[in-house]
Automatic annotation (TrEMBL):
InterPro entries: LysR-type_TF_proteobact-type (IPR058163), LysR_HTH_N (IPR000847), LysR_subst-bd (IPR005119), WH-like_DNA-bd_sf (IPR036388), WH_DNA-bd_sf (IPR036390). Pfam families: HTH_1 (PF00126), LysR_substrate (PF03466). Keywords: DNA-binding, Transcription, Transcription regulation. This is Transcriptional regulator. It comes from Pseudoalteromonas porphyrae. Belongs to the LysR transcriptional regulatory family. PROSITE patterns: HTH_LYSR. GO terms for molecular function: DNA-binding transcription factor activity; sequence-specific DNA binding. Residues 1-57 form the HTH lysR-type domain. GO terms for biological process: DNA-templated transcription. It comes from the Bacteria.
Length: 289
């Protein structure tokens, strides 16, 4: 009766037989065979198959919804019986990048694992925009403004940006008094070549150029401290250097305030208890900061 149901749900969640096979650590042919046998027993086609992709039929979609509800009830029942509510266990895969993740998020996850030692954590530091579902990640830590997507994004904490330059650079290059004057400066680029500013309540972008580009904030910070140009960095990264006089903030009155670090995860009907617990732990930890 139950044969093929788990394989079917994995294909639904991961979007392909190949990705489902990777997640279950079995062959693609095994997944395909199990789903085919399930369809034969049900006397109904669950997936429309083409050479490029698969998609649920109406019957398959309705069947998946009912199975997910049943499986969640089974998971909850097993958790209660086995005591996972008291002692969660299993692997959590997390992706993120930057100094904030390493210095602010990682220590909190360390405390979480110390509290729940049967939980395993795999943290991947990667600057590219990882596809969480396709690559099998449970959570991501991202910075900036969240765009509309099929992911759930919850703010961990606001992170205000600031422009900074070294006194040596400003001795050779007069400090800008408006964002538009940045076009005359060597701007140290992180991700994009446009910086956002608040002009009397209206957000506008200014295109910038420069001879230094890096997707790591510490590399940008080093270039800025070395007098190479002006950088746009989070305040928490540059604060100590500003206080020590090694950097000077610029155009503070034009800075936007809508940047944040976010906890991002897929919209999953079935989320392991350990992942849900870590999400709430991180959100609570950062609210207390």
């Amino acid at each position: 009766m139950w044969q093929g149901l788990d394989e079917f749900l994995h294909v639904v969640e991961h979007g392909s037989f190949t990705h489902a096979a990777k997640a279950m650590e079995v062959s693609t042919s095994h997944i395909s065979r199990q789903v085919q046998q399930l369809e034969n027993r049900l006397g109904s086609v669950l997936f429309q198959r083409t050479t490029r992709k698969i998609s649920l039929t109406d019957a398959g979609r309705e069947y998946a919804v009912k199975l997910k509800a049943i499986k969640q009830e089974l998971i909850d029942a097993n958790n209660q019986l086995q005591g996972e509510q008291r002692r969660p266990k299993g692997l959590i895969r997390i992706t993120g990048a930057g100094e904030f993740v390493a210095t602010n998020v990682a220590p909190k996850i360390v405390e979480f694992v110390k509290r729940y030692p049967d939980v395993e954590v795999d943290m991947d530091f990667n600057n590219r925009n990882v596809d969480l579902v396709e690559e099998g990640f449970d959570l991501a830590i991202r910075f900036g403004r969240m765009q509309d997507s099929n992911l759930i994004a919850r703010p961990l904490c606001p992170r205000i940006m600031t422009l900074v330059a070294s006194p040596d650079y400003l001795q050779q290059n007069p400090a800008p008094t408006t964002p538009h004057q940045l076009t005359k400066h060597n701007c140290l680029v992180a991700m994009g070549k446009r910086w956002r500013f608040n002009f009397n309540g209206e957000i506008k972008e200014v295109k910038i150029t420069g001879n230094w580009r890096s997707n790591h904030p510490r590399a940008l910070l080093s270039a800025t401290l070395g007098g190479l140009g002006i950088a746009h960095l989070a305040c928490d990264i540059v604060e100590q250097y500003v206080q020590q006089g090694q950097l000077v903030t610029l155009l503070d009155e034009f800075q936007v305030t809508d940047n944040a670090s976010w906890l991002v995860y897929p919209r999953k009907d079935l989320m392991p208890y350990r992942v849900r617990l870590l999400i709430e732990y991180l959100l609570t930890s950062f609210r207390a900061c």
